[in-house]
TrEMBL record:
The chain crosses the membrane at residues 100-120, 126-146, 167-188, 208-229. It comes from the Bacteria. The keyword Transmembrane applies. Gene3D superfamilies: Immunoglobulins. This is Integral membrane protein. InterPro entries: Ig-like_fold (IPR013783). Keywords: Membrane, Transmembrane, Transmembrane helix.
Length: 424
């Protein structure tokens, strides 16, 4: 284990910069410490403690100092989180390989138990050999993509999250490959022309029309969804922010971590149909699983719902109005330089951008001046910015007169422009 280059003199142990994985002073521990330090600082500043005396007399200066301090701490948390994500991706390939070979061992155990009384058959041998071939292929692929998560590399999206459409498609592709290998193994071991002809007929489209249709649709959807999401992001109709690392929950949730009906129903129905197909293959290993059309249509309806949800999700952030922020006891007045303005709208905080480092990247253009949205902490979170309301000061550099206001979100998406009058 190497010495952490970011460690201060005279301090022992690592501080989270190494790539030791599960060691107590590795990337995971460094991220945990950074998060704990940030939460402590946020709650301390939210209660009014820790402010320097030089800025305590001015509400504006205090707010700016608090925002800058929290931004620096949040940047450290984000840096540690990215480091942990890279280490996790570098280690997870071993776990996925172990899981793949664990499934092969489970298959062997199930076949051995079911062979008691019935005897060992050529179909069991073909199934076991097919599983070994698939496991070897996945192991080799994991080695070549070990820095990107091994087996998970093809199903991780551009936003560093697990893609539901790719996982469902990958599951069906692997199952069909396994089924064809089972038939190939049985064909190689067949001793009679009749048996060989029967196995070849098992690959006829009439026998596996349902499963072939489902395979074609889920693969097409995996490609289509990637295209749809990419075009909507480039057209600023969908906001995407990158995750620190993929998580299994990504299959059932949206980018903000909330449960998604479209993703959940697509993943669950796809998994149920896949289990049914596996049972059919076990019962009739001489042909492709004849997936009933009723079940196949259910999967197709689920897939259509998933695609429709991808077209409907998101939307461009919008400013509805801009007003002068008024505190209790303050007189009504026009907007002047130095005043706070309240920007009301929707979609200011993209899904998955609720962390402080992402919130601190929000900018408001007031005329030619770029104003970073200050972080205002409260116990357990932030009161500013929020998804529907932003509060920012009007800098002294803004020229009096009619100026435009525009918000740039953490995802880099720009809102519409709204004009306001700034007086002397």
């Amino acid at each position: 284990m190497g010495r952490d280059p970011g460690r201060g003199p005279g301090r022992g142990g690592h501080e989270g910069g190494c790539a030791c994985g599960d060691c107590p002073h590795g990337a995971r521990e460094g991220h945990r410490r950074a998060v704990a330090a940030f939460l402590s600082k946020r709650d301390e500043l939210a209660s009014g403690q820790g402010l320097p005396a030089a800025v305590a007399h001015s509400a504006g200066a205090s707010r700016q100092w608090v925002s800058d301090a929290l931004t620096q701490s949040a940047d450290l948390v984000a840096e540690r989180g990215r480091a942990e994500g890279e280490v996790w991706l570098g280690l997870v390939w071993r776990r996925t390989v172990a899981s793949v070979w664990g499934l092969v061992a489970v298959l062997l155990l199930v076949q051995a138990l079911t062979a008691i009384g019935a005897g060992w058959t050529s179909a069991r041998t073909a199934g076991l050999l097919a599983a070994v071939v698939v496991a070897v292929a996945l192991t080799a692929a994991s080695w070549f993509h070990r820095a990107r998560g091994g087996v998970l590399a093809p199903v991780i999206g551009e936003d560093n999250r697990l893609s539901t459409s790719r996982v469902v498609a990958a599951g069906w592709v692997l199952f069909v490959v396994y089924a064809v290998l089972v038939l190939a193994g049985r064909l190689a071991g067949a001793s009679s022309h009749t048996e060989r002809d029967s196995l070849i007929e098992g690959l006829e489209l009439a026998r596996g029309a349902g499963i072939v249709t489902v395979l074609a649709v889920v693969c097409a959807i995996a490609v289509l969804v990637r295209r749809v999401v990419g075009l909507r992001v480039l057209g600023q109709r969908l906001q995407k922010v990158r995750a620190d690392r993929p998580r299994a929950a990504d299959l059932l949730t949206d980018d903000s971590g909330r449960g998604s009906f479209a993703d959940t129903q697509y993943a669950v129905l796809g998994a149920v149909a896949l289990v049914f197909a596996a049972v059919r293959l076990a019962r009739r290993p001489e042909q492709l699983p004849d997936l009933p059309w009723g079940l196949a249509v259910m999967v197709l309806i689920s897939a259509a719902t998933y695609v429709a949800a991808k077209y409907a999700e998101g939307g461009r952030p919008v400013i509805l109005s801009v007003v002068r922020s008024r505190e209790a006891g303050d007189l009504d007045a026009p907007i002047r330089t130095g005043d706070d303005i309240e920007i009301r709208g929707a979609g200011f905080v993209p899904p998955g951008a609720q962390s402080a480092d992402r919130l601190s990247r929000m900018v408001v253009r007031i005329g030619a001046v770029h104003v970073h949205v200050p972080l205002v902490p409260v116990p357990g979170g932030f009161s500013n910015p929020s998804d529907a309301v932003l509060t920012v000061p009007v800098p002294a550099d803004v020229e009096p007169g009619r100026v435009e206001v525009q918000v740039v979100t953490a995802a880099g998406v720009e809102t519409n422009r709204v004009e306001i009058d700034v007086t002397d």
